[in-house]
Amino acid sequence: MGAETVISAAATIALFLMCAAFFLTAYRVVKGPTLPDRIVALDMLVAIAIGFIAVLAIKTGFNLYIDIAIALGLVGFLATVAFARFVLRQGMEADEPAAGGESPARKGVRQGKASRARRRR
Question: Which residue has the higher pLDDT, 62 or 113?
Fold first, then answer.
């Protein structure tokens, strides 16, 4: 048994395992109970896609696939950051005051500062 046979068999097994991981992660994207769970699952899908590309690069010997995997990693990272900012912004909007009023969080901060100022006197 030669080295090429072992590498080909390992690449085939890796592709099957990553295919199973891909479907399990896609299920989490669809079924995820919360938006952050879906974002993490999408990030995992990018990582699995990078793994697919890397295994294909090893199996075919075409090294350009590695550059494609690196570019996909950068795009996936930026997408995850954009989704995280979206979730953060969505949470901030829930804390903002409604119709010109003061939010409960901001009111608590203001009251905390006032009580500290009274204690100093």
Answer: 62
Q: Class assignment of domain 3-120?
A: mainly alpha
Rounded-to-integer distance, Cα 95 and Cα 103, Å: 6
How far is the C-alpha of 11 from the C-alpha of 51, rounded, in Å? Answer: 11
pLDDT at 41 over 70: yes
Q: Following DSSP, what letter does each residue of 35-85 receive, concatenated?
A: HHHHHHHHHHHHHHHHHHHHHHHHHH--THHHHHHHHHHHHHHHHHHHHHH
| Element at 112 (helix H, strand E) | helix 104-120
Six token digits for residue 112: 């905390």
Please, which residues have CB within 8 angstroms of residue 34's CB and are 6 or more apart in sequence?
A: none
Domain ranges across the chain: 3-120
What predicted TM-score, i.e. pTM, was given to this entire model? 0.71
Query: Burial letters for 39-58: b for 16+ Cβ neighbours within 10 Å, e otherwise?
Result: bbbbbbbbbbbbbbbbbbbb
